[in-house]
Design brief:
It is globular, with a radius of gyration of 21 Å. The protein has helices at residues 11-26, 49-62, 74-78, 80-86, 101-109, 154-158, 166-178, 202-210, 225-228, 232-239, 257-263, 269-283, 301-314, 340-362, and strands spanning 2-7, 30-31, 39-44, 68-73, 91-93, 115-116, 136-140, 142-143, 162-163, 183-187, 217-220, 247-249, 287-294, 318-323. It has two domains: 2-116, Methylthiotransferase, N-terminal domain (Rossmann fold); 136-365, Alpha-Beta Horseshoe (pyruvate-formate lyase- activating enzyme). Strands 2-1-3-4-5-6 form a six-stranded parallel beta sheet, sandwiched between helices. It starts with a strand and ends in an 8-residue tail after the last helix. Helix 8 packs parallel to helix 10 (232-239). 40% of the residues lie in helices and 16% in strands. The protein contains 14 helices and 14 strands. By secondary structure, the chain is α/β, with parallel strands linked by helices.
Length: 370
């Protein structure tokens, strides 16, 4: 059967799509463009309301297509009813069914409508894959997290932290290097809490991976500041290895302690700033990426100004700006919401501040010759 895989969201989702493609190719299915496909697999994301709406509209349009439809990803775990309403004939499987995709596709091919959600998590490493970029291997090191952020629906979709075994992760990296990969992306909902459930934490994992022979580089995914604090000294040593990209994704989400408290982020902006200062002192010139939510429930003009202050003080290289949007099943949905016009205005102001900070940071490269 000819199959088209459509992916939304994070690098973990991209990895899952590559794994599905690899497993299906093993049993003779072909990955093709949409127009040539007999089946479309939609790998969903539920982090932002804009993405959710885009996916549901897409499913509504596909109702009139003769192609078989399979929906997976985070929306399958927490918004099954919305998917069924948008496309009553679609099959739906949860995140933990990815490894069973061969059997699932065989059932759909035979005419069965499949519903499989709620299985126990499995290790998504050392599995065949069809890479979108042949030189990049996305290695998922864990699923779930230890946080309980008041605005986040993903915890409901992915559950509590489950770190994958070090030995399997190392084997996955070794196999990808044999395949010719030059970049390894270590991804998870929060890589910073890797191993908090097993005792073997992120710095120890990085030492195992950097010890692998070969010419390759490693990029670490998003780390919650609340978990970085307890591993930072060891983490800085690990990041100084020549195989590590000097890249840190530290999502502060707000510059206001009051907002962070309502978000249940479990750190202060001062503590996040200390982490950044230590990284800059030890790593030197590294790339700092962060995320900021604008218009979180109850955010005042003064609290928004604190987010602007954070950008002006720390001048991150990359800022992913999100306008707050209500997510179902979250505590923030029940809080007092900020007027939409204020949210848009603050988003524009923050974008301007980020652009100015990036220009200032990048001016130092003028005349650089390597």
């Amino acid at each position: 059967m000819n199959i088209f895989i459509e992916t939304y969201g994070c690098s973990a989702n991209q990895s899952n799509s590559e794994i599905m493609g690899g497993l299906l190719s093993e049993i003779g299915h072909h990955l093709t463009p949409e127009e040539d496909a007999d089946m479309i697999i939609i790998n969903t994301c539920t982090v932002k309301i804009q993405t959710e709406r885009k996916i549901l509209k897409r499913l509504e349009r596909l109702k009139y297509s003769p192609k078989k439809i399979l929906v997976t990803g985070c929306m399958s775990e927490v918004q099954k009813e919305a998917i069924e309403k948008a496309h009553p004939d679609a099959s739906i499987i949860g995140l933990n069914e990815i490894g069973k995709i061969k059997n699932i596709i065989s059932k759909i091919e035979a005419g069965e409508q499949v519903f499989m959600v709620d299985s126990e998590p499995s290790d998504l490493v050392c599995l065949p894959r069809t890479r979108i970029n042949p030189v990049i291997n996305i290695t998922q090191i864990a699923t779930g997290c230890l946080g309980d952020c008041s605005y986040c629906i993903v915890r409901s979709a992915k559950g509590a932290l489950r770190s994958f075994p070090v030995s399997k992760i190392v084997d996955d990296v070794k196999n990808s290097i044999k395949d010719g990969c030059k970049e390894i992306w270590l991804t998870a909902q929060d890589t910073g809490c890797y191993g908090f459930d097993t005792g073997v934490k992120l710095p120890a994992l990085l030492r195992k991976i950097t010890a692998i022979d070969g010419d390759f580089r490693i990029r670490i995914g998003m780390m919650n500041p609340s978990h970085v604090r307890s591993i930072q000294d060891d983490l800085m040593i690990a990041l100084n290895d020549k195989k590590m990209y000097k890249f840190v994704h530290l999502p502060v989400q707000s510059g206001s302690d009051e907002v962070l408290k309502r978000m249940d982020r479990r750190y202060t902006i001062g503590e996040a700033g200390d982490i950044i200062d230590k990284f800059r002192k030890t790593l030197g010139d590294f790339t700092l990426s962060t995320d900021i939510i604008v218009g979180f429930p109850g955010e005042t003009e003064e609290q928004f100004q604190e987010s602007l202050d954070f950008v002006n003080i720390y001048k991150p290289d990359i800022v992913n700006i999100s306008r707050y949007g209500i997510r179902p099943m979250t505590r923030a949905a029940r809080m007092e919401q900020v007027d939409g016009n204020d949210v848009k205005r603050r988003s524009r102001l923050l974008t301007d501040a980020v652009d100015a900070a990036c220009i200032e940071r990048n001016e130092k490269w003028v005349g650089w010759k390597g």
